[in-house]
Design a protein that fits this description.
alpha/beta; Rossmann fold; 2 domains; 10 strands; about 65% helix
Length: about 600
């Protein structure tokens, strides 16, 4: 399957029509519950125990009325009250065990789901993130998993407990009085119908609500990240209005969902308690006429209330379960998203030392732009230890070559080889372990300086980090930070200048000590003095390793062993600076523009 043909899960996609119609998708959570079967069994035992002891309270009510109140004997009253106290203590004990075990299970499973989703995201190919919003992915990772925690740790337990008490109370109703029980059973279909009708609407609206919340988060995150641009163009009011529209859209969807749930709960309560009032009138007439005792009616009323409460709880929780089904569906889309980059079953080993790189008839289009070729029929061989510069106008395909070398993508046609071995035959992690990339826009993490430099080499010592920063001419400005190497850089290194961020990224690459060095305009954000110093450091770093340099300023790559000129995804010329001036019109035009500008 080519990159352009790879299926990408849509935000509004559904796994299957059957799952879209009921709650069966929740059974897919069993894979996360399965490792904790012991805890799940203990919680189930506590649940059954609590439901059973709760049902015994009905017998306590019967004993209290018939033996305590009617007999007017203090001893029997004491016995009945003591029985109720004992049952209450058992209920409290069972409730403690059930609540603790179920809540622990909810937290544990939610943590496992978050970890599984995050781990899978890290394995996905970059094109997945081109076609899916980062804010929505974060919403699934946080909001949806939090919702599942509530469901597993609370709502699901309530639903199971209510189902048990409903079943047990219904059996005891049959034993106590068959006629009154028949009246109760006649009302069950009246309760189930609104559950089914409104429940499906609630689930559909729940998914729409979760998606709209994700859109709000995505929009807000983008504006916050680009706050300087927003303020410099005085677009605050326009963004406030646009964000307000997003919020109102999310609110309107949530309001529709709340309305459906409110109608569902109201309908169930009306049906249940209307039937209960009718049953009380019939039962009261039987007591007056002597066909049943007051204690039996009291027990029956207790069990009927339990049935009514169980049905009301299930109707309320049903909406939560519908929301959980929507959240589960969204999370499964992430977990089932295929990665287009795979490691072979038996990857070939890679030795140490500089690597030769060969591209043979390589063509490639980005998945988000399948009709536009980023590379077209590229053939290039780079010897081990050679320093090669890639030059050309923007969009010529220079950065795309880096993307293919790091195997973020596979070419549509042709082969990319490292030391003569096609990249698909190698472990992607092993390939990347031999490379270091210094991008034009350095990526820094919200952490301290040491963490950001040490990211290139886990387990690096403080001295290693210090040596790398000195080699990148970063030690001086780092030492002047409030807490030196322990200074937090803020989100994406916002507390540093562009040149300082770039030197941190260079220090990271120096620390990694790679076999293949990829420099994408690595000195573009530096002032003249810093650029000279860092260029000296890079010249030292490039010795004895294969180096590819993307450069728009030709003066920075005159020292390269070879300069490759690209245009419209094709190699149009290659050679030394002097050779290209003689034979390449494009290179000569680029050189004249730059060097004439520098002289003027």
């Amino acid at each position: 399957m080519s990159q352009a043909q790879a299926p990408q899960p849509s935000r509004h996609a559904t796994p299957a029509s059957a799952q879209a119609q009921d709650l069966r998708i929740l059974f897919s959570l069993w894979q996360f519950l399965k490792p904790y079967r012991g805890t799940l069994l203990a919680a189930a035992v506590a649940l059954v125990f609590t439901a059973g002891t709760t049902l015994l309270l009905g017998q306590g009510v019967k004993m209290l009325i018939d033996k305590g109140f009617v007999s007017a004997e203090p001893a029997q009253l004491n016995q009945a009250v003591g029985f109720i106290f004992a049952i209450t203590a058992l209920i409290a004990l069972g409730t403690f065990a059930r609540f603790y075990l179920v809540s622990w299970l909810g937290e544990r499973v939610t943590a496992d789901i978050r970890a599984a989703v995050f781990n899978h995201l890290l394995s996905l190919h970059p094109s997945y993130f081109e076609t899916n919003k980062s804010g929505e992915i974060m919403s699934r990772l946080t909001t949806d998993t939090t919702l599942l925690q509530t469901i597993i740790g609370s709502s699901l337990s309530m639903a199971l407990r209510s189902s048990l008490t409903f079943t047990g109370a219904l059996i005891l109703l049959l034993i106590t009085n068959l006629k009154l029980t028949a009246m109760v059973l006649l009302c069950v279909p009246l309760v189930i119908v609104p559950l089914l009708v409104f429940g499906r609407r609630v689930r559909k609206l729940s998914r729409e609500s979760q998606d709209s919340i994700a859109d709000v988060g995505t929009y807000a995150g983008e504006i916050i990240r680009q706050i300087k641009t927003v303020q410099s163009y005085t677009r605050e009011q326009a963004e406030q209005q646009a964000f307000g529209r997003e919020v109102e859209r999310a609110f309107s969807v949530a309001r529709a969902r709340i309305k459906q749930r409110a109608v569902l709960i109201a309908a169930v309560i009306l049906m249940v308690f209307g039937a209960l009032a009718t049953m009380l009138w019939v039962g009261g007439m039987d007591v007056i006429e002597g066909r049943m005792s007051g204690g039996e009616l009291g027990a029956f009323v207790f069990y009927a209330i339990m049935v009514a409460s169980a049905v009301a709880t299930i109707s309320e929780v049903y909406g939560d379960l519908q929301r959980a089904a929507g959240a589960t569906e969204r999370l499964l889309e992430l977990l089932q998203a295929p990665s287009l980059i795979h490691s072979p079953a038996s990857p070939k080993p890679l030795g140490a030392g500089p690597k030769a790189i060969t591209l043979t008839n390589v063509s490639f289009s980005y998945p988000s732009r399948p009709d536009q070729q980023a590379l077209a029929g590229v053939n290039l061989h780079i010897a081990a230890g050679e320093i090669v510069a890639l030059v050309g106008p923007s969009g010529a395909g220079k950065s795309t070559l880096f993307e293919l070398l790091l195997r973020f993508y596979d070419p549509a046609t042709g082969n990319v080889c490292l030391d003569g071995q096609p990249l698909p035959s190698l472990d992607p992690a092993a390939v990347r372990a031999h490379m270091a990339l210094v991008p034009q826009q350095p990526a820094l993490f919200t952490a301290d300086v040491s963490y950001n430099i040490g990211y290139g080499k886990p387990g690096a010592t403080e001295q290693d980090i210090l040596n790398a920063s000195r080699a990148a001419y970063a030690h001086e400005f780092i030492s002047q930070l409030p807490e030196g190497y322990a200074s937090n850089l803020g989100e994406q290194g916002v507390r540093l200048s562009g040149g300082q961020r770039q030197r941190i990224a260079i220090a990271r690459a120096i620390l990694k000590d790679p076999d293949v060095l990829l420099l994408d305009e690595a000195t573009s954000a530096l002032d003249t003095e810093s650029e000279r110093k860092v260029q000296d450091a890079l010249n030292q770093l490039m010795q004895g390793r294969t180096t590819l340099i993307i450069a728009h300023r030709l003066a920075t790559v005159l020292h390269a062993d070879r300069i490759v000129v690209l245009d419209n995804g094709r190699i149009v010329a290659q050679g030394t600076h002097s050779e290209l001036l003689a034979k390449s019109d494009l290179y000569r035009r680029l050189a004249e523009l730059q060097f004439n500008d520098q002289q003027s």
